[in-house]
Design brief:
This protein has 16 helices and no strands. The chain is mainly alpha-helical and 454 residues long.
C-alpha cells in the first residue's frame, strides 16, 4: 500500500468499521451506504415537512374531512393514468435522467403551490392528490434505484440501514415541521420542503457519478442497459411472482388501514365515556384524542427506529427474506385475534403499536428486498404499480369495508377485528407463496450466474 493511498483507504475503513455495528458492511461499501441513507432521509424529511400543509389546506375546504376519504380513491384513478406516463419516461430516458426529471418536476411544483396558497386560492384537494402521488412515486423510484445499484447479496445485507435513513427522516421531518410552523407559519413549509428535496436530488447525482467513476474501464452496469418498452401493468400481470407480491401488499395495506379505523373507533368511544364519567370536561374530547395519538405515533416511531437500526438486518440475515416476510402477518394475526376478544383501548393500543413498529421497520425493508431478483424493467415500472397504485387500492378497499361495516351492517369493533383476522390469513398465505417465489428466483440467478438486471 502506497503512502498516497493510505489516507483515503484508512478513512473508508473507519467508516466501514463504524457502520458494521449496525449492518454487515463489507470493505468499501460504507461511503455509498451513508450517501444513499442520507438521500432517502432528505426525501422523507421533505415529505413530513409538507404533511401539515396538506392537512391545513384540505381541512379548510368545506367537507374537508370527507374529501380526505374520497381523495384516496381519486389518487388510485389518477395513478392509472400517471403510471403509463412514467413507464414511457422510463423507456425513453436513462436511469439518472429519469430520476432527475421526475424529482425536479416535484421540486418545481412547490413554489407554485406556495404562491397559490399565499393568494388564498382553494388548492386543498389538488395539493392532497399531488402530495399523495409524490409520497408514493418518488420513494418507490428511490428504492428502484437502490435495487438497481446493489447486487442481491449486498441489498440483503445493507437495505436495513438504508431504510433506517427513511425512518429517521420521517421522525426528523415531523419534528422540524413543528418548529418551522411556530417560526414561519404554514405556507413557507412548502419552500422549505423544496429546498430539502432539491438537496436530495443533488446528493443523488453525486452518488450516481461516484458509482460510475469507481467501476472498471469497459465494465457495463445496470445503468448502461435499456429499461425496455414493456407496459407497467402488463409486466405485473405476466409475472406470477410480481402478481402474488402485489396481492400480498394490497392485503397488508387493507388490513393496516382497517386496523387504524379500529383504533380510532376505540379512542373515540373512550373519549366519550370519559366525558360521561366526568373524567374530562365536555368539549375536551379533541384534546384527549390528539394527546393520545401524539403519544401513540411517537412511541411507534421510536420503537420502529430501534428495530430498524439494531434488529432488522440481523433477523433477515438469520432467518432469510421468505421467513422475515411472514413475521408481520403473524404479528397481525395475533394482534387482531386479541383485539376481537379483548377490544379495550389499552390492549388495542399496544397491539397496534407492535404491528405498526414491525411494519415501518422490518416489513418495509423486506418489501424492498423482494425486488432484488427482478429485471431493471420490473424495478422501475412494475414496482411503481405495486408501490403506488396497489397501495392506494388497499386504502380504497379499507374505506369500503369501513363504510359497509358502519353504514350498512352496523358492525362492532370486535366484528371489524374478526374481518381483519380473515384478511390476515389470506395475506399470510400470499406471503408464503411470495417467499417461495423469491427463493426460486434467487436459485435461478445462482444457477445462471447472470444478474437479474442484466
Amino acid at each position: 500500500m502506497s503512502a498516497q493511498s493510505a489516507t483515503p483507504i484508512d478513512a473508508r475503513s473507519r467508516v466501514d468499521a463504524l457502520l458494521r455495528i449496525f449492518a454487515d458492511v463489507r470493505p468499501g461499501e460504507g461511503g455509498r451506504l451513508l450517501a444513499l441513507s442520507a438521500n432517502v432521509f432528505l426525501i422523507l424529511t421533505a415529505y413530513y415537512v409538507m404533511k401539515p400543509v396538506r392537512e391545513v389546506l384540505i381541512l379548510e375546504q368545506p367537507g374537508g374531512a370527507e374529501l380526505k376519504s374520497y381523495a384516496y380513491a381519486m389518487q388510485a384513478v389518477l395513478l392509472m393514468a400517471l403510471i403509463p406516463l412514467y413507464s414511457g419516461l422510463a423507456t425513453s430516458l436513462p436511469r439518472r435522467r429519469l430520476i432527475n426529471v421526475v424529482t425536479a418536476f416535484f421540486v418545481a411544483c412547490l413554489p407554485v403551490f406556495y404562491m397559490l396558497a399565499e393568494a388564498r386560492t382553494s388548492i386543498g384537494i389538488v395539493f392532497f392528490l399531488w402530495i399523495g402521488i409524490f409520497s408514493l412515486m418518488v420513494i418507490a423510484q428511490f428504492w428502484a434505484y437502490a435495487n438497481d445499484v446493489y447486487t442481491v447479496d449486498a441489498g440483503k445485507r445493507l437495505f436495513a440501514f438504508i431504510a433506517f435513513g427513511a425512518s429517521s427522516g420521517a421522525v426528523f421531518g415531523a419534528w422540524l415541521s413543528g418548529h418551522l410552523i411556530r417560526t414561519l407559519g404554514i405556507n413557507p413549509l412548502l419552500l422549505a420542503a423544496a429546498v430539502i428535496l432539491a438537496l436530495s436530488l443533488l446528493l443523488f447525482n453525486l452518488v450516481d457519478l461516484y458509482a460510475r467513476d469507481e467501476r472498471p474501464a469497459g465494465h457495463r452496469t445496470a445503468a448502461d442497459v435499456d429499461i425496455g418498452a414493456g407496459n407497467a401493468f402488463a409486466l405485473l400481470l405476466k409475472s406470477r411472482y410480481l402478481t402474488v407480491m402485489a396481492l400480498a401488499i394490497l392485503l397488508l395495506n387493507w388490513v393496516n388501514s382497517a386496523g387504524e379505523y379500529i383504533l380510532s373507533a376505540i379512542v373515540k368511544r373512550s373519549a366519550d365515556a370519559a366525558v360521561l364519567a366526568g373524567t374530562i370536561a365536555a368539549g375536551a374530547e379533541g384534546r384527549y384524542i390528539g394527546a393520545f395519538f401524539a403519544d401513540y405515533f411517537q412511541l411507534v416511531n421510536v420503537i420502529g427506529m430501534a428495530l430498524q437500526l439494531f434488529v432488522v438486518a440481523r433477523v433477515v440475515g438469520w432467518l432469510g427474506v421468505p421467513v422475515a416476510l411472514c413475521i408481520l402477518p403473524v404479528v397481525a394475526l395475533g394482534s387482531y385475534t386479541i383485539a376481537a376478544l379483548i377490544p379495550t383501548l389499552a390492549m388495542v393500543r399496544w397491539i397496534k403499536t407492535a404491528e405498526n413498529a414491525v411494519d415501518y421497520s422490518l416489513m418495509n425493508t423486506v418489501r424492498q428486498m423482494l425486488f432484488l431478483p427482478t429485471t431493471r424493467e420490473e424495478k422501475f415500472k412494475a414496482k411503481q404499480v405495486i408501490d403506488s397504485f396497489v397501495v392506494r387500492v388497499g386504502d380504497v378497499l379499507s374505506a369500503l369495508t369501513v363504510y359497509l361495516g358502519t353504514a350498512v351492517f352496523a358492525l362492532s369493533v370486535s366484528q371489524f377485528a374478526w374481518i381483519n383476522v380473515a384478511l390476515v390469513l389470506v395475506w399470510l398465505a400470499l406471503s408464503v407463496v411470495t417467499g417461495i417465489g423469491f427463493r426460486r428466483r434467487m436459485a435461478r440467478q445462482s444457477e445462471t450466474a447472470v444478474p437479474a438486471s442484466a
